[in-house]
Amino acid sequence: MSLNKYLDVAPEVAQAIADHKPVVALESTIISHGMPYPQNVETALKVESIIRENGAVPATIAILGGRLKAGLSPEEIEYLGKKGHDVAKASRRDIAVLAARGADGATTVTTTMMIAHMAGIQVFATGGIGGVHRGAETTMDISADLEELAQTPVMVVCAGAKSILDLGLTLEYLETHGVPVIGYGTKELPAFYTRKSGFAVDYEIDTPADLAAAFHASLEMGLRGGMLVTNPIPEEYSMDPDVINKAIDEAVAQAEAQGIHGKETTPFLLAKVKDLTGGDSLDSNIQLVFNNARLAARTAAELVKL
Ligand code: PSU
Ligand code: MN
Questions:
Q1: Which residues make up the environment of ion ligand 2, defined by Cβ < 5 Å?
Q2: Which CATH superfamily is domain 1-121 in?
Q3: Active-site residue 78, yes or no?
Q4: pLDDT tens digits, residue range 109-151?
Q5: Ligand 2 centroid – CA 185 distance (Å)
């Protein structure tokens, strides 16, 4: 049962929301476009189990047969992972047409936030968010994720942003749109594969209870937007900055040389970085998603107490 006629909330997720139990949303573009098969499916299933171990119910989000789904079965996750890039990457501008056509879509941070909010889910864990791309002053390539953070009240727990983006411009954009950028246990914005970026976050917060308190205040005040929690990759999985930055620079140069643009840019860069680092970056990527799932579940568990 749902207020939104296009939305299907899985029974376990609907029950948890009705009982005021913690729920954590998860995106599906990371499954179809962010990682190769079969690691994508293994990771997605493991993330769900980590969320359960930390006291919350997972709700992986996607569009299947035109239905906006909050909560997928393992078979549905396998289906999305196997289809990979053949599933449409669905951002805000895509979902109406996909729904009307009865098509499938892998949800980005943007559409995962939208569907989570429709379903009544307040906390969402992922790997990295989209942002302002390098060279955006001429390409105008700015991810819809930033707009969504500005207007949809969902907490997004990520590992910062990859330096495939212009991190400084991404922070400026978030500031303009009133999105608080929190560092979990750090004053510095993490850069996904590495714990440091050279850029400061707005606030350091050190416990899930304090994260929940800050977001609760935002919700109670009726502020429209979300909150971005950046959680540094665990030290033991972080990458050598020189190695990863060299791979990123090379990937950006190849994208430019090949004229890659629009929605293809981010998936292209992610795949290239993975190829250029011989798969080391994939291990780091997987571990940081696990780390974010843990923090999101613990924060969701604190939020329901408030
Ligand atoms: N950045 C990552 N990993 C990802 C993505 C971005 O490090 O998987 C995915 C997310 O789904 C994000 C989307 O919402 O790419 C952003 O795409 P674009 O830059 O086209 O808005
Ligand atoms: Mn883009």
A1: 141
A2: Indigoidine synthase domain (3.40.1790.10)
A3: no
A4: 999 999 999 999 999 999 999 999 999 999 999 999 999 999 9
A5: 30
